[in-house]
Amino acid sequence: MLSKELYETYVQILKDELLPAMGCTEPIAIAYAGAIARKALGCLPDRVVIEVSRNIIKNVKSVVVPHTGGMRGIQAAAAIGIVAGDAARELEVISNVTQEQIADTCHFLKTTDCTVEASKSDFIFDIYITVFKDGDSASVRIIDFHTNVVLIKHGDELLLSREVTGRKESALADKSTLTIEHIYEFAEQVDINDVKAVLDRQISYNMAIAEEGLRGNYGANVGKVLLDTYGEGDVKVCAKAMAAAGSDARMNGCELPVVINSGSGNQGITASVPVIVYARELKVPEDKMYRALIISNLSTIHIKEGIGRLSAYCGAVSAGCGCSAAISYLYGGGLKDGSHAIVNSIAIVSGMICDGAKASCAAKIASSVDAGILGYFMYRNGQQFVGGDGIVKKGVENTIKSVGMLASEGMLETDKEIVKIMIDEENFCS
């Protein structure tokens, strides 16, 4: 039986992490910083300087920013936030942009000196925007996670200053308390009413964008390709296709919101949509679907915690592992089944890199969901990867630690090389 303190912590983790966001969260964080800076300055600036860490460059360079008429990149994200953002909406900062404001943003970018510089700080997640007008200035800094504003200045006046805590994220519930065993205990014990509103929003938002991805024409249309190639009659195909379609739409300018997980909309989609598809196919009671979503979301958060918000390690892998445990639960499996499904999934797909947010994320999501499904059915058929098979260790927690070390420490140089390749103009394709 979980303690009252741990129970309340897990409820709060879900509330902290399953937040609504418009578009890819890194450009939205830039837009959020821009909106705050404009508000602090009190007028539209005539010069903007944007300093961002390499992982922000990686995740913003190629993705379409919603409500910009199809524009991509760091300047577009900052400009739409400065011109039309509502800072009070945080990660939905540009959710109410009008066509007139999009036109104003295009004009702003054409007429305003807006420069981007690589941050010299050691923080993986660092956004620093300074806006200028007639000798006046304002600055905003966001560090560590998407809404963690640590500095607001107007000229020399300090309007806000917060301690920089690194990856500890002290403003949020303590995710270091998560274990797979406790996640299963919590999922079985929780009063669904304590988390129902959060999960209902995730179901509504993420299924809506998945359905839109199949209806529309977004990016490489990975979701449609899966259904056209393999057919709609197999739940495994539908689970992969629906999750991929959500990313198709989200990475390519769809203006529907998503509910994120671990700071990522793609992870939020991956941790939820396949679980919902399976729950509906298996016709399980609604209560069981909610509990499966809890397992998927918290397992994803737990695996991602050791990796960090941004990394050279593809975050969809964490969510694919999370949904494997949830699918196991929907089939009647317990802690042992889910733990083996996670370990198997990690062993299958841990080599996938993150090279920024863009259309191909949808295909990586499909691969991660496929690995999660295979990981579960391997165990169901009496097959498993064991400690000593590569990075797999004895026990699910030890294997999760291995992934965290691989991603946060081992792939630091890989991350630098990925960004170097991405910003080399000779590698750009029209």
How big a fraction of the residues is strand?
5-15%
Distinct helical segment count: 16
- Alpha carbon gyration radius: 21 Å
Q: Spans with pLDDT under 50 lasting ≥5 residues? A: 425-430
Shape: globular
Order of helices and strands: HEHEHHHEEEEEHHHHEHHHHHHH
The neighbouring-strand order within the major sheet is: 3-2-4-5-6-7
Structural features:
55% helix; six-stranded mixed β-sheet; 16 helices; 430 residues; disordered C terminus; two-stranded antiparallel ribbon; alpha+beta
Short description:
The protein is α+β, with helices and mostly antiparallel strands.
Report on the architecture of this protein:
The protein is of the alpha+beta class and 430 residues long. The chain has helices at residues 4-17, 25-41, 54-60, 74-84, 99-111, 180-189, 196-215, 222-230, 235-251, 265-282, 286-307, 315-330, 335-349, 361-380, 396-410, 412-423, and strands at residues 20-22, 47-52, 113-118, 126-133, 136-143, 149-154, 157-161, 257-259. Strands 3-2-4-5-6-7 form a 6-stranded mixed sheet. It has a two-stranded antiparallel sheet with strand order 1-8. Helix 1 packs across helix 11 (286-307) and helix 8 packs antiparallel against helix 9 (235-251). It is globular and about 70 Å long.
